[in-house]
Specification:
The chain is mostly helical. It has a single domain, classed as Four Helix Bundle (Hemerythrin (Met), subunit A), CATH 1.20.120.1760. Helices cover 70% and strands 3% of the residues. It has 10 helices and 4 strands. Strands 1-4 form a two-stranded parallel ribbon. Strands 2-3 form a two-stranded antiparallel sheet. α3 runs antiparallel to α4. The longest helix is centred in the N-terminal third of the chain and has 29 residues. The radius of gyration is 19 Å and the shape is globular.
């Protein structure tokens, strides 16, 4: 029995699951049942988590390949580009395009910036250990927007034990749809710009776990995040994504990127 043949299939299977999650999210949008939009958001967030694992699995099993790079990028376009755009459009923009066609533009901006990000990534990518990213990765951008949509749903569901939603309902405070729209557009524009920017981001694994030994405070924060994740998952994903996005922007501001006309070539940990 050639064990390596099976090892090679493991990263691709993870990538295939990511594609499946994206396709299912698109199917949910086609169905048009608003109650299921949260499920579509969770499918894309789940795919983003898997995307962070497939490359590491490929490196651990020593099955990194050029095929894996291309397959992973195709999966990203489907799940974090097309599927995330479909969820955004159906949940936020669809009801407004009749009155103003400009609302077609915003989700398309996200999709195009994501495609540009992936194209730039493909021409600089090599197999090996990942050291970081130039520009916000599209899985993170899509996950951040999906977590924002989940926050809106969470705040609207006062009967589901959400203390903030219950408190707002008790005070007679509601987040109007127009405010949700403006927040979504603002956040969308920011993450779209960051995807095609030269802002440097660490890997998600390195961001949370590198040099954690001996750092009791960081270990405590990570443990606390895990606990909160089980209690308020949507809130946790939203806050973590905002912090990660802000961290990259803040550190790049302190240490400006010297643009010499080329994007820095990074080694990446992919299939």
């Amino acid at each position: 029995m050639n064990i390596r043949k099976y090892k090679i299939a493991i990263p691709s299977m993870l990538t295939s699951i990511s594609i499946l999650a994206g396709i299912m999210a698109i199917f949910i949008c086609i169905d048009g049942t608003r109650e299921n939009y949260s499920l579509a958001c969770w499918l894309i967030i789940m795919a983003a988590v898997i995307d962070g694992l497939d490359g590491k699995v490929a490196r651990l099993t020593r099955t990194s390949s050029e095929f894996g790079i291309q397959f992973d990028s195709i999966a990203d376009v489907i799940t974090f580009g097309a599927a995330a755009t479909a969820v955004l459009f159906r949940s936020i923009f669809l009801d407004r395009v009749g009155s103003n066609p400009i609302f077609y533009v915003f989700p398309v901006i996200f999709l195009i910036c994501g495609a540009v990000r992936l194209a730039r990534f493909n021409i600089t990518a090599t197999t090996g250990k990942k050291t970081g990213f130039t520009g916000l990765p599209i899985p993170t951008a899509a996950g951040a927007l999906m977590s924002l949509l989940l926050i809106f749903t969470w705040m609207d569901n006062a009967g589901n034990g959400a203390w903030l939603a219950a408190w707002l309902a008790h005070k007679g405070i509601a987040v109007p749809d127009d405010l949700k729209l403006r927040i979504t557009i603002g956040y969308l524009v920011v993450v779209s710009f960051l995807m095609v920017s030269l802002v440097k981001y660490p890997t998600s694994f390195g961001f949370f776990f590198n040099d954690i030994r001996g750092h009791k405070i960081r270990s405590f924060i990570n443990a606390l995040l895990v606990v909160i994740l089980f209690i308020y998952p949507s809130v946790t994903f939203f806050l973590v994504s905002v912090f990660y996005i802000a961290y990259g922007f803040a550190t790049s501001t302190q240490d400006p990127v010297q643009d010499n006309g080329e994007t820095e070539k990074l080694t990446i940990d992919v299939q």
